[in-house]
# Entry
Amino acid sequence: MRAYFWSMTTWNFFTDDPNKCMHPFGVAHRGGRMLTGALPLAQFWSAVTSDTIVQLEQTACDNVQHASEHGRLNDRWIPSSNALEAIAQLSRGENLYHQGTLLFEWVGSDSSGTSTRKTMANADLLQSPQELFSRCGEWILTQAQHVKGFWGANDATNIELPNHVQVIGPLENLILAQGVKVNACTINTEAGPVLLGPESEIQEGSNIRGPLFLGASSVIKMGSSVYGPTTIGDQCRIGGEVSNSTFLGFSNKGHDGFLGNSVIGHWCNLGAATNTSNLKSNYSPVRLWSEKEQTYVDSGFQFCGLIMGDHSKSGINTMFNTGTIVGPGCNIFGSGFQPKHIPSFSWGGGQAWQLHDFDKFIQTAHAVMERRGIVLTDADINYWREQHQIATERRQ
# Structure
């Protein structure tokens, strides 16, 4: 009974990214909403809490329960049993830090208003968007059974699949929610689970390798090749060749073209034959734009493709170089390789750029979101107006 209660635990979050290390992903991915593997961070914390709570003493369980009701977590902190145990050992009013970074804080009447603190030697904090593709495989493996329970799904040992669908590997690693459609495709589960969300679809001629998460109402289109580990969030349309990438949701790569070791935000569209380089010709580490340093720094990654912020789009035949960072609100087109850093609200291609007109940006955002049945709110518009003003000032 206790485990079931904790599976429903709700944690509160605060945003702490002083170094802008998660650029170009903004407010839509904060507060526990960042998609980490198959789960938003908030649900990931609930899942790990459910696993860990049965291992703790009753007093520690009570402490964690109180902390979830009266405290907040850093929204870059990845959950673990060690994290829960550290929270369980906190005295009320005692905040938790790791190397100067606040991990957990008390709020309301339990906030002491002083500098009372406790430190944690090891904490797993997101440090870059690249982790969203490089770690999605380990996260999907950890989360698979929680996702299965959350969906009320079955695995392929309990479902009679069409005879034109070939599963290579353990059938129990293929997990299908209600309404899934799979047609004349191959699904390889040898390297990890394949999680197919409610009303999702894999169309004819596609070849899939796990670990893979395919979110609700997302579609892998005919003749596609998707190599895991890959995360595809809700309501995406995916075509062509995709390898070890993360789509955070509501975005399209509907046509041929290669995307590898990349992260694509919300409401993006990659035009037909958009291609991304994910490996330098000399095999050296990829240098990426640092928003904090305002220059390029060594990422430590040998494979890294495209990191694209929300509401950005590319025209047909667009070529992205290795380790390209695209800010939100961009419209990119033109021949040749694009710059490796494209600032927010850029309109153009190659060497010719201008500021994306705000009213046109909002008009497009309205139309794109309406197609998915989602309303662009006044709060959204105000947020994007602020971001557009910042982009405008930086160009002056």
Q: What stands out?
A: Residues 1-7 have pLDDT under 50 and may be disordered. The helical segments are 2-7, 41-53, 58-70, 81-88, 131-134, 136-151, 358-371, 378-394.
